Amino acid sequence: MTFSSIAFVAAETEAAKAALARLAARYPHVPPEEADLIVALGGDGFMLETLHRFVERHVPIYGMNRGSVGFLMNTFREHGLIERLSKAQQVILHPLRMVARTSGGEVIEALAMNEVSLLRETRQAAKLRIRIDGKIRMEELICDGILLSTPAGSTAYNLSAHGPIIPLGAGIAALTPISAFRPRRWRGALLPHTAKVVFDILEADKRPVSAVADYTEARDVVEVEVREDRECELALLFDPEHNLEERIITEQFLP
Length: 255
Prior knowledge:
This protein has helices at about 15-25, 45-55, 80-85, 155-160, 245-250, and strands at about 5-10, 35-40, 60-65, 90-95, 95-100, 105-110, 115-120, 125-130, 135-145, 145-150, 170-180, 190, 195-200, 210-215, 215-220, 220-230, 235-240. By secondary structure, the chain is α+β, with helices and mostly antiparallel strands.
């Protein structure tokens, strides 16, 4: 990996801010708007924020864990940073693009690095119809919600909802129900990454539903379209011995 200037950004935690101060004192750096490589200090949530913040800049992002899980982060070490950056391996991710239409006629677009999830807003279960590439695949799903996950996001909310872990480069996305009531035994589906998925919200007035792309929420939706945005590329950097592909494989063998 070659670069000429780096910038540091940090989460608003004491651990992240302390790491920022130490690194900024040790290494030459520039403002994020001028850098051709960004070092993000925090946890996975902060990495998602950083990816969204700099999506238009098309610069690679190298994360160091100053949070909790740190699945998308490298191990924090103060020394040897420039050498680590020069040896880092790049992973290109394509986010999901959500287009949500609300009952009030508003159209809300957002990108999701992890997943797009639909969730019931009240005590009433959601009723959804699922269309894939224009064909109705499920006429009615009664559930707490459903999500469509990228491979990178398959170990996040998708895994908690008992969805499959997907290796990077598999060319598929996970469609995973959240507490499905009918059909009760439906466990979800694996879809080609090129699929366009449309969720129609049935009985939307009685059973309101929200749609969330990572942390952008649309309330009272009536239709949600989700597809992979192949024109949008996000570059993450990982130490060779701890790359994202290896983490995803390892995660499948944890107790």
